[in-house]
Amino acid sequence: MTKRVLVIMGSVRAGRHCPAIAQWVSGVGQERTDLEIEIIDLAEWLLPMDDEPGIPALGLYEQHHSKAWGQKVAQAHGFVFVTPQYNWGYPAALKNAIDHCYLEWKGKPLLIVTYGGHGGGKCAIQLRQVADGLKMKPVSPMPAITLSNAVIRENAPLDA
Ligand SMILES: Cc1cc2nc3c(=O)[nH]c(=O)nc-3n(C[C@H](O)[C@H](O)[C@H](O)COP(=O)(O)O)c2cc1C
């Protein structure tokens, strides 16, 4: 059976670099494995922070979007988080998506790929702690891609 991997983009902001980096990460995975890889844009998953009265760990989702997101995560065998570092942490949109379910993450491998002016190591360490809390299986290498000032401040191409 082909294993399904979701590459989840951490950034939802306008003008983000995340799609290009996620495409590259996904391409590397596609070239070297026979995994079925799908890129997930959290901007397309409206997951309001205030409309689920239950605790996700109990799996009692009331809203259609929470059920759909839970199923999407449940159907995957592994994950790659491709995320920028924001103010020494990870983006709120990514944490919100993580917190919308619970058991669906459990026991599944996770590769954390970060990027930023300093590569995103602080964000990676924090995400790893979250993954441990969810009893995921984060792999040890946590690639951290350093973006140049030109990319960050002048929106130059990623290889500038
Ligand atoms: C809200 C915000 C906070 C940021 N904080 C950091 C940071 O702590 N460390 C860092 O290296 N870069 C930081 N940056 C720069 C980002 O790494 C850079 O803008 C990157 O392109 C953001 O990813 P995105 O374009 O996919 O959203 C920050 C950018 C934003 C928008």
Mind explaining what this structure looks like?
- The chain has 160 residues and is α/β, with parallel strands linked by helices.
- The chain has a single domain, classed as 3-Layer(aba) Sandwich (Rossmann fold), CATH 3.40.50.
- It is 33% helix and 20% strand.
- The protein is built from five helices and six strands.
- Strands 1, 2, 3, 4, 5 and 6 form a six-stranded parallel sheet that branches.
- It is globular.
- The mean pLDDT is 96.
- The site of flavin mononucleotide has 15 residues, from loops.
Bound molecules: flavin mononucleotide
**Strand tally:** 6
Shape: globular
Number of helices: 5
Q: Give the biggest beta sheet.
A: 6 strands, parallel
Poorly predicted runs are none
What is the CATH homology-level superfamily? Flavodoxin domain
Q: End-to-end distance, in Å?
A: 40 Å
CATH class: Alpha Beta
Overall SS class: alpha/beta
Mean pLDDT comes to 96
Keywords, separated by commas or semicolons:
160 residues; 5 helices; 6 strands; alpha/beta; binds flavin mononucleotide; Rossmann fold; 33% helix; 6-stranded parallel β-sheet
Q: What is the gist of this entry?
A:
The protein is α/β, with parallel strands linked by helices and 160 residues long. The protein contains five helices and six strands, in the order βαβαβαβαββα.
Describe the secondary structure blueprint for this structure:
Layout: E1 4-9, H1 18-32, E2 36-41, H2 64-74, E3 78-84, H3 92-99, E4 109-116, H4 121-133, E5 137-138, E6 144-146, H5 149-154
Parallel strand pairs: 1-2, 1-3, 3-4, 4-5, 4-6
Bound molecules: flavin mononucleotide.
